[in-house]
Specification:
mainly alpha, two-stranded antiparallel sheet, nucleus, Probable U3 small nucleolar RNA-associated protein 11, SSU_processome_Utp11, rRNA processing
Amino acid sequence: MSAAFRKAAKSGQRPHRERAQPAARRKLGLLEKKKDYRLRADDYHKKQNALRALQKKALDKNPDEFYFKMIRAELQDGVHMIKQPKDEVTPEQVKLMRTQDIKYVEMKRVAEAKKIERLKSELHLLDAEGKNPNKHVFFLDTKKEVQEFDIATHLDTLPELVGRVYNRPTIATLQKETLKGATEPAHLKKLAQQRKNQYDLLKQRIEREKAMFVVAQKIQTRKDLLDKTHKVKVKKETTNSPAIYKFKFQRKR
């Protein structure tokens, strides 16, 4: 005999027995206890009361009532999300920002152009790669003079210096003055490499200045498109040039 039965027998009360589980429903688990039914019932009545309160609130609501969340909320995956307000910019403000952008790009382009002029003044573009070679034309009277023509003799310089486009002294100058500057092959090679690097830098700056000029033109075109004047696109925008529009003529007051 269990302790519960002995206690119930001493007190004269009828012992409590769990209700038997039918064999057909034994796979569903044990039956709920009395307190489980009470908790489930309380939860059900609580939800019903909340629904009745919401229904009453909806019936009492004015259908013409308006609040701002009606236009600032949208449904996403069944959840109401508040739309984030976008920054409002007037056309005048957009024009001003375009003007500031143009001024900045133009300032950088002018600075780049000054650097280009400084490099050109130092290098003179005498032996830059890709530069069209200068032509020196000599005029002779007869074919015999053409056959016997010697360019080193005509220029009064050494044959080794004929191919140089700069610093090509004459024989008289070489006899009177001593040769100045670097003469060793290693030093000359180093100077040639430095000169080549300077020309490469000049080429990069020229390309950058051209790119900034194109960017400034494109920004100016976008600024002009903000006007409400009727316009027709004449040429599409490319990487090297902005789009071209033809605007309707309007007489200024």
